[in-house]
Amino acid sequence: MIKDNEINSDISEIIDRISQEYSKNIDLKSNACCNTSLKGALYVRSYREFINALESCRITFVLITTTYCPYCRLFKPIFYRIAEQYNNKAAFIEVNADYIPEIAMMFNVYSTPTTIVLVDGRMVDELIGYIPANYFKEYIDDVLKNVKCIQG
Asked: Which portions of this protein are annotated as coiled-coil regions (predicted)?
């Protein structure tokens, strides 16, 4: 027969392990730049999707495009390729202003492509037009270093 002391000891040990694991998770999340695992860029189809995506990382790069913009077509592959290199460091979101114009209006975007930079949900910068891959990557590195999401 199991004694009460043994049960209490086992329960106490389990609770200690759970609390230690919980503490580790909180420490990891507070130091992390993203609270979900993101892989590459996300194409959002609604305002609600956009808001949900913003909540996933401290730093968000929002590419605002339009359907028939030739420079958007040139820059999108660069944006998506670089997004894959920064998994769990920042969120990369594409928004087509033809389908979700309220997002473009929210950031006063009048030409595309425009890349909006958000830190903790606040707009800190915007890049208007096509950007060569090497310059865009350097810019992202600088932003991530400034907010301490990568070492530098």
From this structure: none
